[in-house]
Structures are given as structure tokens and as C-alpha cells.
Write the C-alpha cells for this entry.
Amino acid sequence: MTEGTATASTAAAPEPSTDGSPPRPPKQEQEAASTEVTEVAHGVLRLQLPIDFPGLGHVNTYALEDGDGFALVDPGLPGEKSWNDLNDRLERAGIPRRRVHSVIVTHSHPDHFGGAGLLAEETGARIISSERFRTFWDFDDDELAQREPGDGSPPVRRLPNFDRPTPWGGTTEGPPPERRKQMEENIDEMLRWFRVPVPALRLADMDTISLAGREWFGLFTPGHTNDHLCLWDPEDGVMLSGDHVLPSITPHISGMVDGDPLARYVESLDRVAAFDGVNIVLPAHGHPFTDLAGRVAEMKVHHEERLDRLREISSTLGWASVVDMSHELFAPRSWGSMAESETYAHLHHMHLRGEAERREVGGKLHYLVT
């Protein structure tokens, strides 16, 4: 779930221009999933699963081989089609399901954790996540968060409550209304292919884990979510970056992250960029790339430009709500809770730095950038 490609209406369609120039080619992350299986690092295979999110055409599932079998990272969305696609890619890679011993989820967005619970149930694999990992089901029902893996609990037969309150007085970052309606109408079929993932191993920052025959460090990298996990292999110089660093778009910065979401995200960017010896970055969307520090610098410029744009908007609107400012910051096709959340994250950052005033009007936050 990202903000930088919310302008695309289909996975691999060129983005239309607004000035009459030829359409721009799709970003890497928008490309449709290929069935090709490629070795992208020693002991690491890249499998691509189709997804149909605005601006995203695939999610990368990485298979890490060791003497006991395979660990799979981010096994895609829930659902029959996704399950069949995952099994197709495993077959193409020559990976029997019985050899999957671990399932790693980088963070709590459904294109990353959606297939994890069912895969773990079918294979007996353990689920591995950040120690902070929580899904909407956990927020809705604390009992679910206490379940032990393999305790025989029946599949969840309901949708979670997506409508959590937000700091700015808006709605939460659940599915858009049309997708939520579709989920509600097809709940029995959808939940047939979904199990709430219950991690057996939760990694704290800098915890080590053995994968692909070598030690990896778990890195807590908040900003996109409050529970984002990257994995760093100093031996071969491999960074599994999830959605934290992507090759040609910037991930959505969530206003629901604790503290100052934008500052925490930039701090996490600087942290991963400072690691010596990064030879390859394996993102959750788009192609593997090599210049991590250069890509981080580009993403930081993007957010500085977004702050500048909010200053311009505020000088025109004066005091305005987060919703009104989000409608100026984003194109109409991107309006909604995610645009509001990203706008709030930037305004809140400026408020904490003394660059914006804030007041509450009718239960909603209004800002004036000074």
C-alpha cells in the first residue's frame, strides 16, 4: 500500500498525462507479475504474485533456501486466486509446500500478510514478524492476539472493524468503500482462503535469525506502518526492504504511526542507508536495485517537496482541515483516508517543529503553516 503510485488505474497501464504529452510508462511497481523465477542473491529466489491495488501490479515473494527447506517472505494477498498463484510459483521454483518451514511478513498490509496464515496452516511453518506486528483483527478482538500458533482455533468468520478513530478526526485506513462492500458480500468465500496470522517468532530490533544459511538482522523501520520489518544480511550485503525502500515510488507514510510518523520514517531511511556493504536491495514491489543510499536521498527530497507544497497550500487556504489540505495535495483519484493520513503525517511533523499552528474545530484538526 503506497502513495506514490495511487495515480495508476490498472497495474501495467501507462499513466495519462495532463499536458498533452505522451503517456508516461508504468513505474516498476505497477508492472504485472511475471511467472519467471529468478535467483536475485545467493540462496534467494524472487517469485512475483499478481495484486490489484491502485498503482501496484505485483508483490515480490522471496524464497530463502537452507538445509531444512525454505523461508518465504510476504506470500501475497488472501483469496483463491492468490493462493493458486502462490502455489504455481512454488511449483515453477521446484519448492514443494512441505519444504516451507517459515513464513516471514514484513508488515501488516494484506498484500504482505494475507497468505501467511493459510500457508502456515497447510505446511506447519512458523510465522515470523516484527514484535510490533498487529492486524486489523487483533485491534478488533484482543483475544485473537493471544492465540497460540496451531492451537486449533477455527478460521475467523467475520470482517474486522476497520473504523478506528484517527488523530485528525477522519476515518481509518481500511479498504475503500467499494472494496469493503465487495468483501462483505463475499465474506464466506474470502475467509475460506484466509487465516489471521499468529506469529510464532516476533523479532525485536537487531534480533538475529538464520535464513538461507547465514545470519540476518531484523531492523525495526517504522513510518509506512508501525510494525515494519526489514532484514539485513551483512555477509552477502543483502537488504530485504519490504515497502520501506522501493525502487521508483515512495511508500505511504501513515498518520497512524506513533509519535512523528514522518520523522520516524526519515530516521529509518537514514539508518538503512548508513549500512556499509549493501550490494543489493530486495524490495516488496519493483525490481531489485543496488544504490540504496542514492534511492534514500531521492525519497527524502520527495518528502521535502511535499512539505514545501503544504506551505504553498496553507498560504492560499489559511486555516484548513486535514481533509481540505489533502484535496489540494493529492489528485482527486487519490482522495480518501490514505491521502488524509499522509497529509496529517506531514502537517503533524511541521507542527512538532514549530512550523504550523493547530486547533480543533468540530472534532477535526485544522492547521495553519506559519
About this structure: The first helix runs from residue 80 to 93. The chain has two domains: 28-291, 300-369.
